[in-house]
Specification:
171 residues, 54% helix, four-stranded parallel β-sheet, globular, alpha/beta
């Protein structure tokens, strides 16, 4: 399992860089709307970081297979967070995501976690198919912020991943 505190400084540095990029891209391309940000693994950690430290920059975050080290949880009310995590993830145990979501809720944020019983950390054809199967739930979340394109992008990326993973698996 990953040691969160050992990677905390790297997450903080990358998270601040991502915040600057999100702020610039929003200002240049869509100043009237905040983005919905999602990421997988380290990207999930960075999504959680944005929610905790820059809640004003995002409409919501949707981290997949991520968490936030305890030292980075922050003290402000985080951005709305809908997290997704495999229950048998050995690299980032689901308990780490649970603790992050619980801390966000304790700070007054809207934070939920959807757990997938037989999904681990690696991207496999099975895990992507599970995510595609829940993309209607994902679409409902993104529609709430008038971002249905996020769900379409997610389904398209997931479909490409399924093809690539199945090709690697020899299916």
């Amino acid at each position: 399992a990953i040691d969160g505190e050992a990677v905390a400084e790297g997450v903080r540095v990358a998270g601040e860089g991502l915040a600057a990029l999100v702020e610039r891209l929003t200002r240049e391309h869509s100043p009237a709307a905040k983005p919905v940000v999602f990421g997988y693994s380290q990207g999930g950690m960075l999504s959680f970081y944005l929610a905790a430290h820059h809640p004003d920059l995002v409409a919501a975050v949707l981290p997949i297979a991520g968490f936030l080290p305890r030292s980075l949880l922050g003290t402000t009310v985080p951005a709305t967070t809908y997290a997704f995590h495999g229950a048998v993830d050995e690299l980032i145990p689901v308990e780490a995501a649970r603790a992050t979501v619980r801390a966000f809720s304790d700070r007054g944020g809207v934070a939920t976690l959807v757990e997938y019983p037989h999904v681990g950390h690696p991207i496999t054809g099975e895990s992507v198919e599970v995510w595609i199967g829940t993309s209607t739930q994902f679409e409902l979340y993104t529609r709430r912020w008038r971002r249905p394109a996020c769900a379409r992008v997610f389904r398209t990326l997931a479909a490409v991943l399924v093809e690539d993973v199945h090709a690697l698996d020899g299916r």
